[in-house]
Amino acid sequence: MPAAPKTQKKPFISVSIEKQAFLEEARQLIYQLGEKLVTLTVDSLKDEVEDYYLIFHTLKGNSRMMNQKEMQELFHALGILLLDVKDFDLQPNEEVISILKESLKVTSNALKMFAVGRVPRVKMNTFRERVIAASIPPEKKDISQQLERQAQYFQDLGINNTPGRTIDFQDGSTQFFEVRIVLDETVFLKKTRVYTIIRNLTQLDESVRFGKVTPSIDELLAGRFGLEFALILQSTKTSDQLKKIVKYSGEIANVTIRMVSTKEAISLLK
Q1: Burial 165-185 (b: 16+ CB within 10 A, else e)
Q2: Under 8 Å CB-to-CB from 60, ≥6 apart: which residues?
């Protein structure tokens, strides 16, 4: 009697806690992307461009934390394309819409392959080149209006004691933090990176309030600082949660967050 054929065992793949968390959040973001793409049109993109940007920006930050260079660069390129629509008057066209719709398939495939320890470098890099080709070349961008918007954004937030989203010492449900940030040596525009960090904090943490930035906002917007700056802020989130939001912004070398007492916060704001 012939022996029964041996069944081939599937290889065991060890998945770290960090990788599991990355994949779980990425799948949730891809689900959100798929839901939005159902109704995507040239006209609807103008109203929803920020939603798409946040999805790809979060994926970029998470990919960076997992040292997935190809995915990080792809999501960065998609984010730049959306910022061109939002901030640099790139008119949405059929190519932009086609890229966003195809991004769902490309991203889903990349995540599936990453889950089993593989990276589809050629496909991701080819698609990234297509995204870059549809974007506005850096040398053709006028960033003066963008910098003006950033200055107004800081003013509206109430940083450095201007009216706005300032610290409320009567709110007993929050904690105070000193956040020290060191930008990466390869950072392209330091002042824009500062703006991105603060904008992400306001968009991803509804409770955040700002007390002070060092150096001053004027010095930051003029680019008169090295690679380090500090924030005094108020939030209901933990130090780890705040650190994750800051790192989402990219081009960050180091983040140190220290919880401070109300008395010390008042002293630091002087």
Answers
A1: ebbeeeeeebbbbbbebebee
A2: 71, 72, 75, 76, 79, 248, 250
Over residues 214-237, the mean pLDDT reads 84
CATH class of segment(s) 144-268? alpha beta
Is there a contact between 186 and 207 (Cβ–Cβ < 8 Å)? no
Residues in the chain: 270
Q: Which residues of 12-23 are buried (b: 16+ CB within 10 A; e: fewer)?
A: eeeeeeeeeebb
Mind listing the pLDDT tens digit for each residue in 107-151? 999 999 999 888 888 889 999 999 999 999 877 876 666 656 656
Q: Domain map of the chain by residue range?
A: 17-139, 144-268
The string of DSSP codes covering 184-203 is -TT-S-HHHHHHHHHHHHHH
For the residues 161-169, what does the mean pLDDT come to? 58
pLDDT level of residue 104 (50, 70, 90 thresholds): very high
Per residue in 247-258, pLDDT (tens digit) is 888 788 899 999
Confidence at residue 262, expressed as pLDDT on a 0 to 100 scale: 87
Which CATH code is given to the segment(s) 17-139?
1.20.120.160
Place of tokens 């891809």: 30
Rounded Cα–Cα distance for residues 121 and 221 (Å): 37
Residue 11 has pLDDT above 50, yes or no: no
> Quick one: CA dihedral 84, 87, 93, 97, positive or negative?
positive
**Three-class SS state of 174:** coil
Other C-beta atoms lying within 10 Å of the C-beta of residue 66: 18
Cis peptide before 215 (omega within 30 of 0): yes
